[in-house]
Amino acid sequence: MTRRFPEGFLWGAATASYQIEGAVAEDGRSESVWDRFCRIPGRVLNGDTGDVACDHYHRWRDDIRIMEDLGLSAYRFSVAWPRVVPQGRGPVNQAGLDFYDRLVDGLLEAGIEPFLTLFHWDLPQCLEDEGGWRVRGTAHAFADYAAAVESRLGDRVRHWLTLNEPWVVAHLGHRTGQHAPGLVGSGAELDVVHHQLLGHGLASQALRAGHSGHEVGIALNLEPRIPRSDHPLDRDAAALEEGLMNRWFLDPLFSGRYPDDLLAIAGWPASAVTEGDLEIIGRPPDSIGLNYYRTEVVGHPGLRDCDRPPPLQDPAAEVTEMGWPVTPEGLGAMLRMLEGYGARAVYVTENGAAYPDTIRGGDRVEDEDRRSYLERHLVEAAKAIDDGVPLRGYFAWTLLDNFEWGFGYSRRFGLVHVDHATQRRTPKASAYWYRDVIARNAV
Ligand code: GCO
Known about the structure:
- This protein is α/β, with parallel strands linked by helices.
- The chain has helices at 17-20, 33-38, 56-70, 81-84, 94-109, 125-128, 137-153, 166-174, 189-208, 232-255, 260-266, 277-281, 328-340, 368-386, 429-440; strands at residues 10-14, 74-78, 113-119, 159-164, 215-221, 225-227, 287-291, 296-298, 346-350, 358-359, 365-366, 391-397, 416-419, 424-427.
């Protein structure tokens, strides 16, 4: 069955500064927490770094040509804070802004709408040295950085996303240590969430104080959680984890309060919330970026399998090369949840999968698993729109095979294959399939 998308639906691809740019010490860029993290032995697979990545900083014209060939109508990228405000706060580095100025002009000349993310994890190291997101001051520094970017690009960029996945920064960066700054069991996870949300609110004010007509949003990784079995303890464990992933962010953003039931369980001191914070955070965003990859199964850690009823999910479920289950129906569930929160505009700002590609002779790269993954998720997106969800666009994660954080270059999510030794770009079969979906505006 062919499912058509509305006229004007935006078709894009997403990337992030540290994952593709390289040029980590060019034109005044200062060190980021990810430059530092990559140099901690054992933290990133194979000792990979983003020093060169996809060399997008120098190859951005070629990459825009690839986007144009695929027929993209939008492109989501992130600005590297350390390029623009190398000291984290204070002096603005115009040479750093020059790169994004050229990129935005190139996109507009190609008829591609820029979607700008202000923060996709590459915090200036000098701010981390002062406490990073564990301290409130970083929220205010973020707002000043946002104002500097808006001042230079706000006459041409209309779609803004303040943060990318604050849950990941808090959980993986400050609890498990799998991401920069690599803190294990810091106990600051919920402070880090709060200060990022405060930064979102302050930056939103700064963006709206600039040029008029901006759509200001935030990109969140939202995921359903399914109980391993019907056992009450499994159900409670899944509900708690889903609440901490989703409601902990959506409630303050849309209603200006953290969920009472979760506050009681989290034991997070209300003293971390200063009078007025939640009014700043709680002005509903103009848009929500949904980053969706999978639905996970959750079981109560204290339950043995012999003590629980039969599993609710097939344990042999299909998984990607990340070990993530392929669960397209969860995308629909998250989209409908956002409609329930009253989101005025929703974009799928990330959706994609890592699989090993098959490189045939010449310019053929076969990746049927990725194409199938994208197709099944796009069908769910189309069904959600038919049900009234205000979904305005879809961004495949990701345009180019890039630096996949702790996995280095070992996991490929790209529509376009990159040989990182030569920087040769080769569109994969999924890219050509996506081009046809865009041309037909249907899946
Ligand atoms: C995320 C990040 C991306 C990742 C992608 C694959 O959602 O984790 O936004 O930078 O590379 O999701 O893990």
